[in-house]
């Protein structure tokens, strides 16, 4: 007696990747329309998975290039442009055999996808570090130096010393290890992409907390960026303690 369509579906869903191909061939002779549709759906999923793995292989170019290094660390930042809140930086060391599907530049991902990837990165990474530089310090030393400061803090929190840093288009002063500056690195390196997601999600969550303290500005929505609504609220209420005074002078 042939298996039901639901039984075949469960078998395909539960099969490890190496088994799926064999099962798809095994049931290819089943002419029931429901089975035919089911196999088509699974083949499309397998094709998309293959495409995603090829994309990730391309994003591991620099990790392969520096495979001689035992500890490869990706670094990125979030929040250089906003009018309020800290600049955040993250440092991430991924295991060399680590696969995190759909890892990408955080700006290319939906908030839901970023949150899911954040949890997976935190679970799978060998080490992570996050550095924050607040608005007052940004005003004191300027945004570029504040970003470097946050990046150095993130590296310092790793609990291990990287042999090489893969950075998104910067070289960080004050660090002695080898550094590789990669233009658009958050879309070209899985390590930098992971760091971009951790920095972005950390900062976004912090801005949501600030929204509860200063609800008149709408920080949960715009995360401190200079949207029309934010500028209007700034003009109506004046700045709050997390506004960057050097960023808002021409709005007041």
Share of residues in helices:
40-55%
Distance between the termini: 78 Å
Q: Provide the spatial order of strands within the biggest beta sheet.
A: 3-2-1-4-5
What is the oligomeric state here? Answer: single chain
User: What share of residues are in beta strands?
Assistant: 5-15%
Q: What are the segments in which pLDDT stays under 50 over at least 5 consecutive residues?
A: none
Query: Main beta sheet, described?
Result: 5 strands, mixed
Specify the overall morphology: flat
Q: Please give the count of helices.
A: 11
Q: How do the SSEs run, as a string of H and E?
A: HHHHEEHEHHEEHHHH
Question: Which value, in Å, is the CA radius of gyration?
Answer: 23 Å
Give the number of DSSP strands: 5
Secondary-structure content class: alpha/beta
Overall average residue pLDDT: 94
